[in-house]
Design goal:
Layout lengths: L7 H8 L17 E6 L12 H8 L5 E7 L4 E6 L3 E6 L6 E7 L10 E3 L6 E4 L8 E8 L5 E6 L13 E7 L6 E10 L1 E6 L5 E6 L2 E2 L12 E2 L3 E6 L5 E6 L5 E9 L2 E11 L4 H6 L13 E4 L4 E3 L4 E3 L15 E4 L4 E6 L4 E6 L5 E6 L8 E6 L5 E6 L2 E7 L11 E4 L7 E2 L1
Antiparallel strand pairs: 1-2, 1-31, 2-3, 4-5, 5-6, 5-8, 6-7, 8-9, 9-10, 10-11, 12-13, 13-16, 14-15, 16-17, 18-19, 19-20, 19-21, 21-22, 23-24, 24-25, 25-26, 27-28, 28-29, 29-30
Length: about 425
């Protein structure tokens, strides 16, 4: 890959603040950055790698990658001993979190990692809340500086009682990831979580999947018994609300909050050949690179949730566009949700009140394949979208105009989300 300055255009925008244009951040030359987890990087030599990362790689342990891209385009990459899924950075940018998803493999792997957001040096490693428990992949920092993580119960065949499979929300010390408190999440396989505007409640997306009796793997289609969004009180752990998804085989994976509404992203899996018709209609090769071997993503419409209703958005876009819903963010200025659908190469913008589609972009026409991670940039005017394997593109909020001069082509090694901080 020919090295390019990934965020050089963003640095130009930031510097333009002296002439009255919006800045990306107060001090973009020092601390602003984008963080992108990478699932697969093999024998690739990470760029500007910290020494502790090189030592870990030399041991040959299982690793996943974080790529940090600062506002001047400098790339720093480090390998961590987790199956990492998402990155969260504390509001003061003093500590970062890299979340384990699924079962921790091997004695040398961590259950979550804390790192220095500036250098990508590892600071701390977390432990599972109980034997056999699995990471939920996501975390969020609270106003008091502590960290909330989603944690999944030990995987076992369905007992017939959903509560036997419920996960937990764990509050942790940010540097050591030591467990300070555990709370029930009132759902099965919790994943993404977002603190609500009141600061005292948290919304959690729960996959709802369990093992079929007599099986040792989740497989496909999933056996989904209670996919839902739960809202819990952080002070007591009490369940405030539960919003159910009742469509068979639909997992509820991600969410974003907008005023009194929630956009909940769902996913539905089939076997490896189940998406052949959709791939052919796209003019794509049979193998969807964003799906695990032996699996494929089938259409699954998001849900728009409010205290008054649960509404499936299956009529808002062609069915084929709604494959593998992944990242979603809420733009509070324009009151809309921006969501990625990498299997169908779609970026779809939903009205936060009605759920109507405001814009739907086939990102292949812009040179971006499999849009995955989405991050609102600190300038308040733009957002970035990263392709599953490569590419980082910038769009104007509201108009969704593609900022072609700010689009670059870094290799990202497969990812789901990204974080700007």
């Amino acid at each position: 890959m020919k090295r390019r300055d990934i965020l050089s255009g963003l640095a130009v925008l930031a510097a333009a603040s002296v002439s009255g244009c919006g800045a990306i951040a107060t001090n973009p030359t020092r601390r602003d950055a984008i963080y992108i987890p990478g699932y697969y990087f093999g024998d690739t030599q990470p760029e500007n790698e910290p020494a502790d990362s090189a030592r870990r790689r030399a041991r040959g342990d299982k690793m996943t990658l974080i790529t940090r891209i600062d506002a001047q385009g400098r790339i720093t990459q480090a390998a961590f001993p987790v199956t990492g899924h998402d990155v969260a950075v504390a509001p003061d940018r003093g500590i970062g979190f890299f979340g384990q998803i699924g079962q921790t493999e091997g004695r040398t792997m961590a259950h979550h990692v804390a790192f220095d957001p500036g250098t990508l040096e590892m600071i701390g490693q977390g432990l599972a809340p109980d034997a056999g428990w699995r990471g939920g992949g996501h975390g969020v920092f609270l106003a008091d500086g502590t960290l909330l993580t989603s944690e999944r119960a030990r995987l076992r065949p369905f007992t017939g009682r959903p509560a036997d499979h419920y996960g937990r929300i764990v509050r942790r010390a940010p540097e050591t990831l030591a467990i300070l408190e555990t709370l029930p999440c009132h759902g099965i396989d919790p994943h993404e979580l977002r603190v609500m505007a009141d600061g005292t409640t948290v919304a959690v997306a729960n996959y709802g999947s369990v093992l079929r009796r007599g099986t040792a793997a989740l497989g496909q289609p999933r056996h989904v018994v209670q996919a839902c969004v739960t809202v819990l009180d952080l002070r007591s752990g009490a369940l405030v609300a539960r919003h159910m998804s009742t469509d068979p085989e639909h997992e509820l994976r991600h969410l974003a909050l907008g005023g009194d509404s929630i956009l909940a992203i769902r996913a539905r899996l089939g076997d490896e050949a189940a998406d052949d018709g959709f791939q052919s209609a796209l003019g794509e090769q049979p193998r969807d690179i964003t799906a695990e071997p032996g699996e494929s993503y089938l259409p699954a419409a998001p849900l728009l949730l409010s205290p008054r209703f649960v509404r499936s958005l299956d009529q808002t876009a062609p069915e084929a566009d709604l494959r593998h819903g992944l990242s979603v963010e809420h733009d509070p200025v324009h009151d809309e949700f921006i969501a990625s659908f990498p299997s169908s190469h779609r970026l779809i913008v939903f009205d936060a009140c009605s759920g109507a589609v405001r814009r739907s972009l086939d990102t292949r026409t812009l040179g971006l394949r499999h849009p995955s991670g989405i991050a609102l940039l600190p300038d308040g005017r733009h957002y970035a979208v990263a392709g599953y394997w490569r590419g980082l593109h910038v769009f104007e909020r509201g108009s969704h105009t593609h900022q072609r001069r700010l689009s670059h082509n870094p290799v990202l090694y497969g990812h789901s989300h990204m974080t700007a901080a």
